[in-house]
Each structure stands twice: as structure tokens, then as C-alpha cells.
Records
---
Amino acid sequence: MTDKLTVSVLGTGIMGAAMARNLARAGHTVRAWNRTRVKAEPLAADGAHIADTPAEAVRGADVVLTMLYDGPATLEVMREAAPALSVGAAWLQSTTAGLESVGDLAAFARDHGLVFFDAPVLGTRQPAEAGQLTVLAAGPTASRDAVTPVLDAVGARTVWTGEDGGAGSATRLKLVANSWVIAATAAAGEVLALSQSLDVDPNAFFELIADGPLDMGYLKAKTGLILDDRLSPAQFAVTTAAKDARLIVEAGARRGVRLDVAAASAERLERAAAQGHGDEDMAAAYFASFDGHA
């Protein structure tokens, strides 16, 4: 098989658009689709064909890559694409879909003769645009060579977590990683809000913990977005983070684990979204510390 493939990218939001662009730059034939077509159209300048329907996008594709909002949305789009799917095509499912949805998507793949890879990614807008994502992937060893050119184009590293994509080992690892990211983001927003409310210069706190075990580059990065009013364009949007936080809470509950921090973080993110910050970077959960706009 040639290492230049026809790749269908379904979902061209923050992450999907960057992945599609890097695939085109790597020389692959890219067919991109997004429910709001205008979000996909800029990819035409990079050589991507913009499809009007999911079926048009996947016709003849060697690899289908989905980067949609959640599991149910992904299943709905793949059902729309079903008549044009090629038996034996690989499906890289990169949406953070949750444990139950991964099983549903794997079942769809089996029913339609697709080779299923559970392949969520770690990273935000900047590493996505640079092709520096970390891909967490589970899928059959015998078929991995078929998707390696795609993985190499969108990511700097692929971490294989298992043979059976339907078992959700990659998604489980992604949820664990995102639980830490979301908790750290919530804490960063709260420490900034508290310092301001107590008339403490945030820099005094940063200097206090500098170069010690409590210091954290991520803390300064996220608070910097708030302090410098750089919340748009989002690296990872509030609404998407809220969805992921709920998936984390549900995953814990399925295994008898109560995740109070994740639940509180989901509530903060949802409150920030209700205040009008849904499309801003997840650091905007900071605003949930106040009754209105800070």
C-alpha cells in the first residue's frame, strides 16, 4: 500500500481542521466534511476537497477520521455516511466519546466491515496545528501499518494501549488524562479569582511557588490567557471541556467511584458557558467564580 492515502475527515472544529490541514500538507488526499460547511471551507486553500455530505466525504476513502462533538453525534454522522463506506477501510475514531459510546461505535464498525481504531488525542489547538498531538490508540496490530501515515501526519507520538479498539482502553486513558487537565484548569481559575478578591497580586503567588514542587507551567499558561485577555481563539473550548468533564464523572460512576472534583469542574464550566464564555478557552471557567462577568 502506498503511504499516500485518501482520508476522510468528518468534523472540522478546532482539532479536526488542524488534523485535516496537516494530512493535506503531508500529501494525502483529504475530503473534509463539517455540518456547518463554512467551518470546513478554509481547508480548500490547503488542497482539501470540501464535501457536502458525510457520504460524499467517505466515498473511496482508505481511512475515515472522526473528530466530532461526542459519541452520539459521531454515530449519527457515520450512519449518514454508511451507504458510501468501503468495506475494509480503517476508521480512526478520535472524538472523546465516553466508554459506552466507544462500544456502540465499534459495533457499527463491525456491522459495516470497517477496521476500528479507538484513537483519541491529547493536545489543544497549538499542538494540533503543528502536527504535534499525542495519539492514544487501540486497534489490531495487523492493520496498524494502514493508519500509520495518518497518525504520523497529525501527531508526534502514538501510544498504543491495546488490540481491541472496542474495549476502549485508549478512551479510558484519555479520560484519566483529561480529568487531570480539567481539575488543574479549574484550580488555576479559582486561585486567580481568590487572589484578586483578596487583593493579592497573582504574581506574588507565582513567585512564592516558583521552581518548587508546587510550580506548574500549565498554571501560568492558563492564568496568562485570562490576565492577558487571550481566551479566543480557544485552545480547548469551555463547552467541550464541560462535555468531557461529564463523561469523566459518568465513567467513574460506572465503576463505583465518586469524582467530586470532576463534577464540580463540570458545573463551573457549564456556568461559564451560560455566562457566554462557551466558545472561549476552558480557562474561562474562571468567570464561574463570579455572579456575572468579571
---
Amino acid sequence: MKQFKNLYVLSAILFSMVLISCESDDPVMENDEEVITDVTLRFTELDNSGATVGDPFEFLASDPQGIELGTPTIETVNLTKGKTYKLEILLYNSIADEDITEEVQEESDEHQFYFLGSAFVGSPILTYSYNDLNGEALGLVGEVIVAENPSFNNANMRIVLRHDLDKNFPGADNPNFENFVSAGGETDLDITFPLVVN
């Protein structure tokens, strides 16, 4: 009987050791991808000399869970034919009360926006060029020119933010680079705004 008791104790010890050894010593991988709950497109009209005209106006996409996780509410962008605008993109995480724009700016060598959709490619209504303060092809600040006589008045503006891409990849410096995936990296944001041109 004593032998069975010892065997039982030994089995319990071995079972405990197996359970402990099954626990992973590997560190938990953190997800570096930022949650973005709000994307604001801020437009300011520019005159022929590049000076701002009037007050800025904004269009918002938002989802309290995160734009990449939920179903965001997206406002329709309204622009005027033949006008030139400064476009600023503002990114925010309302869950953590964090300005993501600053982080993207600080890591400008690792991030880049691409401007796609029927508004920018094919027979584009809009022409976009990077105009970031540090000269980096980033896309937080740019210039948008609306066609004088567009062939259609409704389009979509697809805006993609890539992270950890190879900025020296051939074509990656083109803001309308449709094959952006080939430059590597990951997508932090992929959102489409409806566009109406009057």
C-alpha cells in the first residue's frame, strides 16, 4: 500500500512538472500596429502663388473600435473644379487619447501614404503631390489639384498608409503607386472616401 502511495505522490509531482514546463518562456509578441479611430482630411484652398485662401474645411472617417477593425462612418469629400488645395491628414486614437499624426511624422522614414482609387488613377479627377515639410515622401501634407473639366463628377479617394516599406523600391516615391505592396511593409490604414466634384 505504501508503494502505491509513493507512486501516487511521484505521479502528482511529475504531472506538476509537466504543466510547469508547458508554460511558454517566450516573450509575448506585441502588436506595433497603431489603432486609428479617426482620420481627418483637412483641405485649404491655395491661390496661384501657393498662399492659402479662406478657412480650412474637413472631412472625417471614424470608428470607435478602430477604422481597420470596425465599419467606419465616412463623410463625402466635396471639392471644386479647377481649384488647388493643401491637403493635411490627421490621425487620432480616441481609445488611448493619442495623436497618431505625431508618431507617423516622427517615423517619416518608415511610413508613406498612397493616394489611389478612381479619383487619382486611370482618368484622374485629382492630381496629388507630396509636400511634407521635411521633404520626405510621406503624405501627411500634400497638394491636390482638381481637374478643370473632369470627365465625371463622382469618384472615390482610397488612402493607404504603409509602414516599414522600402522607400527606395522603384516606383515607391509615386503617390499613386498602385503596386505599393511590392515595396514591402504592412498596411496601417486603408480607407476610401467618396468624392464629389462641383
---
Amino acid sequence: MTNSNDMPLAAKPIDRAAHRRSDEAWLDTAIQRSDTLILVLRNGEPFCAPDGGLTWFGPEALRLSSGAPRLFLGEDKAGTPVFALDLPPRFDLDASLIAGTGSFNDFRQAAARMTAMDANCACTARSLFLWHQSHRFCAKCGGQNGVIDAGWKAQCALCGAEHFPRTDPVAIMLAVKDGRALIGRQKFWPPGFMSCLAGYCEPGETIEQAAAREMFEEAGILCDPSQAEYIACQPWPFPSSLMMGFILPAGNDEIRIDSAELESARWVSRAEMREILDGTHGELFCPPPTAIAHHIMKVWALRDD
């Protein structure tokens, strides 16, 4: 059975220790502890060792950039404080104290080589830092926001309004009918790459309703939201989505794509889907196991019904 707690980027989370976030004195001491763990990002990219694994620093990371925004991620099982630093976009790696020890890597590629806990920490840090970068000003009065609660909140310096990090619910789904499943591709994807369809949940609808609506809008396939089968969910830091996966029985099989959303879509059999998943199809390939789309496709492909 697929379990969201085992999903890549969500598995093995640390204790977020939210009660620590407003204790500035404790945070200032904790980040200086010799055993503290600090990961660093630049422009949403984590710093990784030459072997691709996430690099953890101690308090010496504070010397990399004075005043870099910090985020308290929580405490590990041993009670060790875990932080993240957001280095400036123009941080010069080659002229820094860590030159030659690693590189800032694309998150998708880096996450595939991280341990479960490392991937969850990096995912969380990326989402929060990107949110702060795009929410520098108050939506209520236009004043400048300041970062509070150890990175988990923003507050306007003028009117005092508090702003909380957003998480955008996204339905990602596989329509199925008569032993076949519908997959599609966007025009900017690499040739042969296909995946589940997906779309944002709108105000006033359930996530199941969003899944059915998006399926019809993008591919012309009618689905009953009451028949939606929930599979799992996954945090997805691009920039701050929560992907909620479904399998939907389809009421028709005639595809009518919205060319603004998809370049193409097609029905595939279970045998084809298995080949796509294991990389032997010859024509098509799909997202890697770090993405929930892979797991939705796999759940259906391995069924006997």
C-alpha cells in the first residue's frame, strides 16, 4: 500500500519543534552549538558534496554570508538543532570558504541522491525560502515584511499583519478505462517524456472535484469525482505545492486536448506502463521515483484488475 509518509521528500521528517521558533535566545545559542546541523541553499539550490549528497555544516556556515536569512527546521532524534541558511543570489562560491568542496545543484537532480531525511529538510527549506523571496511586501498595506518565528512567518513592519507560508493544493491524476491509463505531455518536456495530468485546486471545490475538472479541461475525459481513488500526497517545492494523487475511472475514451495545457495525450496499457516505468518502452519514459506521478502510475500498473 502506498503511504504518504514514505513518499520521497516527505519521508523521515525531523521533529519541527515549533515551540522553539519564538525563543530567539534559544535559537541564537542553538545555531552556535558545536553539534548543530546547517544546510545552505542559493536560489533554491542545495549545496551538495561531489558525490551528490547533501552537505551539512556546523556553526562555521554562519561565516559564509553575514546576515543570511536563517530557518530553524527542528531537532533530530538526538535533539540536535537543524537549521538552513539562504545565501545571497550572487554568493560567489569560487571565492568562498567552501570553494572546491561541492556545488549548488538543481533540486530535482540533487533530491534523487539524498537520504530521506536530507531530502525532506532540503524540500522544506527550499519552499520557505522561495516563499519569503516572493512575499517581501505586505499584501494588506504594501509595507515591507520581516521574517519572524525562525523563518516560519512574515510580519509587516508598518501595520503588523502576519503572513504565513502558503501551500498550494494540486490534484495529480491518472484516468483509467478498460485496462488502459491516460498519460500526457507538455510541449516543453523532453521528447518522449510523459506523465500524469495535474492542476491546481480552485476556491470552492474539493481536491477530487479539481482532479475531475482538470482531466476534462485538459484532455476532454469525463470523470465522476465521487469515484476518485486517493493514492497519496507529496510536498513539491516548485515552489510550494502539495501534490495529491488520484486514480479516476473515466466515462469516455475520446481524447480532446487543450493545446494551451498539453502537447499530446494517449492511452497506454498496463504492459506499456510497466515498460515505461522500468525504462524499457523504447519510445516513452516517465518521471523518476522522486515524483509522486511515478508512484501513481506504478500503483495502477501493478494491479491485476
